[in-house]
Amino acid sequence: MNQPEFAAWIAIDWAEQQHYWHLAITATGRRETGQLDHTPLAIDRWAAGLQQRFPQALLAVCLEQSRGPLVYQLAKYAHLVLYPVHPATVARYRAAFYPSGAKGDPGDAALLLEILLHHRQHLRRLDPDTPDTRLLGMLTEQRRKLVDERTRQSNRLTAGLKLYYPQPLDWIDDIDAPLGCDLLQRWPTFQQLQRAHPDTLRRFFLEHNCRSAQRIEQRIQAIRESTAAVHDAALLEAGAAATASLVALLESLNGQIAALDRRIAELTPKHPEAYLFAGLPGAGPALLPASVSPSAPNATAFSRQPSWRPTAASLR
Q1: What is the mean pLDDT of the chain?
Q2: Which residue, 61, 92, 182, 273, is the most exposed by fewest CB within 10 angstroms?
Q3: Structural domain boundaries in the chain
């Protein structure tokens, strides 16, 4: 594929508040440097100014990221062609010419410009995926992060329960599922749970889709026969307070994950390439969202179940 002709070459070293840029004009070889505030208005004025200086021309822009705020904001300008560079590449380039390892924003912008000018044949221009693919990729990535956060909070809850109220960990398969969260929210200590009437407990389990009468009676019997792990009033109150806060976080995360599940389930069949993966025997339901979205995580990150879509069993 032939490289497009560029009127100027630009390198930007990204920062949280202010970006440093270097520019080389193709026709004259003249170089310029400057700073750019990280605000939508400043970026828009800078891009518009370049378009006025180089009308009807393409400009190559090299930057040390392939995604993020600056990339997303620059991608909307048709006259800017983005060339992401991996941070490790810049680090190695810096080490080759500056053995001291000294790092500075203006210096890194100059290094990026040198990479763009002399090694652009090794760079790949950023060609965004279709809106459908990018949306599905962003949603599945967001879901993965929420699932990871749920796991983190679930581990905290498990560790806290082991201190003063370990029994639910044996009675409930997934303590961070709705059944476990609701039980802990209603009876945050074992003493409160043991005082509950058996009929109350039966109704509670039935309301949470626990249809096995034998399993329900086994749980009720275990509650009656068990004994409190601790009697320390301070530990019981502090543990119940910590459990209440973690349960609230888990319920919020469960709700957000379920909402993303519904949206992903709605978008996936509509993707133009969905048919390529949906028909894979046994693997289609698990791989489909990840396959149609290159930036999506592996299917194993979607949930505990083999399928990415939550099942009724996972909620009990």
Answers
A1: 83
A2: 92
A3: 6-122, 131-315
